Amino acid sequence: MLKSVHLFGCSSGFVSNLLKPNSIVGFGLTFVSSKRLSASSSLSCSSSRLSCSSTASLFLAPRTGSFKAFCGSTCSEANQEGSSSSPLSMSESPPPASSTVTHSSEKIRNIRFCQWCGGQTKHGIPEGEEKLRAICTVCGKITYQNPKMVVGCLIHHDNKVLLCRRKIEPSYGLWTLPAGYLEIGESAADGAIRETLEEANAEVEVTSPFAQLDIPLIGQTYIIFMGKLKKPYFSPGPESLECRLFPLDDIPFDSLAFSSMLVTLRLYVEDVKAGRATFHYGTINKRPGTGASDIHAYTLDYHLRL
């Protein structure tokens, strides 16, 4: 008996910076041409490289070591919720609760080509695993997709906070802390310092960690550091329209770019008014179906103050 399962994803081609190398030996693929049990879903996302919508159906045979799958999707190039220095945004509908293979929180991109040999991939569940993977039909290697880390600085100077107004889409013209993706070979603190220099031409010194905020829906973790200016100088970088120091009472909470920035700055203001320095950990759960512009559509869960 075949089981029909919803598969969420989008075609990304080679997305090597999201993937974890691994391989599989002796895995058999069996692709279905019989009647499909219809299971369709849609996903839209904006990322530094792509935006797409896709429909897919997956059929599992009870036979060990094999799977049957059908995947169809379309993809087009687009900007991301932040280019190299800002976060990814997704809006999607969760899979049905009756799914026997994927949990409702599981997300997968339909990677069409192998990052090692360029061969075409198909999605299935390898033997001994429980999650959908992209498996190369040529070399047999599995593409693993892992969360990304975003790092940034919360610069306090003269009782003010340094913000940058975005010069790129999405969220063009809205305000954000200087932040972006961590690069290979960098520590989190080094990445935060680099991003601040790139976006605000500001040389800073990291003084302490401030917050770790996980956003499972888009596969990201934010690490925000407290920092101070080495020199009282800053100016807009290539991705910023302007940079400005805001008194706490004047922070433009209604004109911030992302929920992560809203949460970070609210927590900072609370700490300052309470007269305490606190490290925060929390999970930002975005409301399904909302996009990057819906910065208030979230709950902050598992919030810990240390």
From TrEMBL:
GO terms for molecular function: FAD diphosphatase activity. One of its GO terms (biological process) is flavin-containing compound metabolic process. Keywords: Hydrolase. InterPro entries: NUDIX_hydrolase-like_dom_sf (IPR015797), NUDIX_hydrolase_CS (IPR020084), NUDIX_hydrolase_dom (IPR000086), Nudix_N (IPR029401). Residues 82-104 are annotated as: Disordered. Gene3D superfamilies: 2.20.70.10, Nucleoside Triphosphate Pyrophosphohydrolase. This is Nudix hydrolase domain-containing protein. The lineage of its organism: Eukaryota, Viridiplantae, Streptophyta, Embryophyta, Tracheophyta.
